[in-house]
Specification:
Belongs to the CMC family. This protein is mostly helical. The protein has helices spanning 3-24, 28-46, 48-61, 65-68, 70-84, 87-107, 111-115.
Length: 122
């Protein structure tokens, strides 16, 4: 193998390695805003029972909900806090975010638009 070919091969491997590192690198806004937002949304789903209990209590009590729904509110807060500080859930959301970001970079179509059905022509 010639020196030029070896140099080219080395450059290609280096570029692939750098692109992989770039793909897994998270910016400040991603780690502190976007991924925690996903964690909060998933936490609400995981704590659906407590959310439903608190909502029902608030609807039943009206203006007295501040006093009468303390137990339900405490249970909801506890569940949400537990989920929000769960490292496994954060990692799951991080991987999901990276997958969505990779798909966006590949296609140029945001996740929201990909979920919409494309109209068919008649």
């Amino acid at each position: 193998m010639r020196h030029d070919e070896e140099t080219q091969l080395f450059k290609e491997r280096l570029e692939k390695k750098l692109s992989f590192q770039e793909e897994s690198f998270l910016r400040h806004v991603e780690t502190d805003v976007l991924i925690p937002k996903m964690v909060r949304e998933k936490s609400k789903v995981l704590c659906a029972e407590q959310v439903a209990d608190f909502t029902k209590c608030c609807q039943d009590c009206g203006l007295l909900m501040v006093v009468k729904c303390r137990k339900e509110n405490a249970a909801l807060k506890e569940c949400l806090t537990k989920q929000y500080h769960d490292p496994a859930l954060f990692e799951e959301c991080k991987q999901e975010y990276l997958k969505e970001r990779e798909e966006y970079r590949r296609t140029g179509i945001p996740a929201k638009k990909r979920e919409q059905k494309v109209p068919t022509s008649m």
